[in-house]
Design a protein that fits this description.
It is a single chain. The chain is α+β, with helices and mostly antiparallel strands and 481 residues long. The protein is built from twelve helices and 20 strands. It has a six-stranded mixed β-sheet. Strand 5 and strand 6 form a beta hairpin. Helix 4 crosses helix 6. The radius of gyration is 26 Å and the shape is globular. The termini are far apart.
Length: 481
Amino acid sequence: MKARQTAISMAVALAACLSLSPSRAADSPDSRGNSSQQELIQRNIERRSVDAFVWGMPAVNFQLMLDAFEKLGGGGNQVIYWSRPLNWKNQTLTPNPDTIYFTPFYDTRNGPVVLEIPAAGEGSITGSIDDGWQNPLEDVGPAGLDKGSGGKYLILPPGFKDKVPDGYFALRSPTYRGFAILRSNLSSGSDSDIAKAVAYGKRIRFYPLPHESSSAAGETHFVDAFDKPYDSTIPYDSRFFDALNRFVQIEPWLERDKAMIDPLASLGIAKGKQDGALAANKASFDRLGPEARRLIQLWTEQAFVPPFNEGMHWALPVPASFPGDMADHFANPNRYPIDSRAVAYALAYFSAKHLGAGQFYLVTINDKNGNPLNGAMAYRLHVPANPPVKLYWSVTAYDHDTHALIKDMRWPSRGSNTPGLQKNADGSIDIYFAPAAPSGKESNWVPTDPHGEFELLFRLYGPEKSFFDKSWKLPDLELIK
């Protein structure tokens, strides 16, 4: 009898536990202090949101550039270009203000697209064609497949199975959309040389592949964006997820990324679905964006170690293996460096198939003493004589917070193709970075914002052997005031 009474008492107690209302059972911690169901779900959303910021960075970067183009009236299979070197109204990530940009945005949803590159001679193009994840399909121009002879690049959509016609460099894109970065190189910054570079760049042809019944190429549509607002800076808030959703709705899932399908769906991003969860999570995205940003900034700072030259602060802030990983679409089955990729595409856009053939880059965020670059201070960069470049070098100042050109500055850079640049007696050049020009040095001066920090990017176009064997070294910035 006593055993039976004990069993009845246990049953009553269990029934009492099971009679808890669903809301109480879901929302209250258990007797061991474990989190409630709702707390677990929310923490899962937070973890997955930060992961999505990291994983989705190159796709969102691309989507925002396309969005900015569409705001100017452009779109797929059209070319945006700048009829003069960029000014600060171009708010892309670390763009080159010492060239003439042509950027075709391809869309192969209705079939292959042709990009014709003119032969080098009256001008030259340094450029690459990238998919929507900004993995390079190929380089073009003298450092690309056509070797400066010009050629027709045929961009094929995912899963294309038809016969590829003769006479093309066929490129299979894993995404329906992507873009090309084409720099029409300047001999100098003079008005006449700018006009020549624009005229040469407008010899590009870009159109859908004609049907078999027609051999006529379609018209190339150019949109001039010079001096117009063009902003693709990364928003670390819910707008990031709106852009990521637009990308996911159009592009196919790649095999390497299928592990992200369920995590994104839990945030409200699922192909072919709009269930309201994305809007419901807006407050979480806005709150978590700064955390994702700080994490990527931390990784960025860590990526400057080791520097390109020992004892200095210039570096390409990604691991040495990263450009190759991008170029072969992450073919190594044991490596998928999405953290490094987030660093790269939080700072910049585009990747080259063969980095170092047509161009190379060095970045610094610190002066000689290891201190952050302060826009209120004055610095000197000494560029030694005989820089190892076939084409030109340049150095550009960017806002350290946005990685875009510093707003409202008269000009953002100086380089070997800058008219009137002063040289020292030994052929070296001193470039100054400060809120005001040092006396008599305005031609060699880059203005900075005294209310913020900045960073520098040193570009080498047509880099030569002495740069890579490090017999020529770029010194750090020196504080002069």
